[in-house]
């Protein structure tokens, strides 16, 4: 597809002007980052896998009536999505204690939570995406109370879907992060799932062995990130036609 005007470049994706008004081309890069981009590498094939996996999950959401921005995959690294106004929050759903929650609360990593816990972080890399409460969100006008009710409902529905899909292929959905976008039909606003759903934004552990199949492999130097993502894609039956190289990451200075 012919390259169009760049709109935004993030740590893992670049967004370009779409071919039609109200559309965006989302390009998946091979860059990997951790610890607020303090650790960085280029991992060959990562973008291809995340593009394929995000397509799989977004189509699954569409099939069960959960609105999202996905329109179609264009090629191995690009997909066409609906333009939307991103709510400035990261929405995190946790089923097991891990990562920052385990550290923050002194909970043993891997402990199953009595119910899914939904947390919110302000999207601001300079501040390290700080944890915020619904009181903060209301006070600063980042989202209305109706928005928050809808966001909570969307997040829990996505959790039910992803948990079931992953359990079916022997993977435990520990936690995941989504972003929410606003779209407008005249004066009417709708909230939809946006950004991506991939091993970059989920914690995925093998149910039998506890092996990590997500970005913690990169964060904690546990082996090949490409191999981990390829295993997730293999179990879900989502594999690119061309072989994805599992070569060692190239570190970025």
Automatic annotation (TrEMBL):
Matching InterPro entries: SAICAR_synt/ADE2_N, SAICAR_synt_PurC, SAICAR_synth, SAICAR_synthetase, SAICAR_synthetase_CS
Keywords associated with the record: ATP-binding, Ligase, Nucleotide-binding, Purine biosynthesis
The EC number(s) this enzyme carries: 6.3.2.6
Statement: the UniProt record of this protein carries the keyword Ligase: yes
Biological process per Gene Ontology, one example term: cobalamin biosynthetic process
Keyword Ligase included in the entry's annotation: yes
CDD domains xrefs: SAICAR_synt_PurC
GO molecular function, one term: phosphoribosylaminoimidazolesuccinocarboxamide synthase activity
Listed GO CC annotations: cytosol
PROSITE patterns in alphabetical order: SAICAR_SYNTHETASE_1, SAICAR_SYNTHETASE_2
Record-linked PANTHER family: MULTIFUNCTIONAL PROTEIN ADE2, SI:DKEY-6E2.2
Similarity comment: Belongs to the SAICAR synthetase family.
Protein name listed in UniProt: Phosphoribosylaminoimidazole-succinocarboxamide synthase
């Amino acid at each position: 597809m012919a390259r169009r005007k760049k709109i935004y470049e993030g740590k893992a994706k670049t967004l370009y002007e779409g071919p039609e008004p109200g559309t965006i081309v989302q390009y998946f890069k091979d860059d990997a980052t951790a610890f607020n981009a303090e650790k960085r590498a280029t991992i060959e094939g990562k973008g291809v896998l995340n593009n394929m996996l995000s397509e799989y999950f977004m189509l699954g959401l569409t099939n069960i009536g959960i609105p999202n921005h996905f329109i179609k995959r264009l090629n191995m690294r690009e997909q066409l999505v609906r333009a939307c106004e991103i709510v400035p929050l990261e929405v995190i759903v946790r089923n097991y204690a891990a990562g920052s929650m385990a550290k923050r609360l002194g909970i043993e990593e891997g402990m199953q939570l009595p119910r899914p816990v939904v947390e919110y972080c302000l999207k601001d890399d300079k501040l390290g995406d700080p944890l915020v409460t619904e009181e903060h969100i209301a006070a600063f006008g980042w989202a209305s109370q109706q928005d928050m009710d809808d966001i909570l409902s969307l997040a829990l529905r996505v959790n039910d879907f992803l948990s079931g899909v992953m359990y079916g292929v022997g993977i435990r959905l520990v936690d995941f992060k989504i972003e929410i976008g606003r779209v407008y039909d005249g004066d009417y606003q709708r909230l939809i799932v946006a950004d991506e759903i991939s091993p970059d934004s989920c914690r995925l552990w093998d149910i039998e062995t506890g092996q990590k199949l997500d970005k913690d492999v990169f964060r904690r130097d546990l082996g090949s990130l490409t191999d981990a993502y390829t295993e997730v894609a293999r179990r879900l039956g989502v594999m690119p036609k061309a072989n994805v190289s599992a070569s060692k990451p190239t570190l970025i200075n």
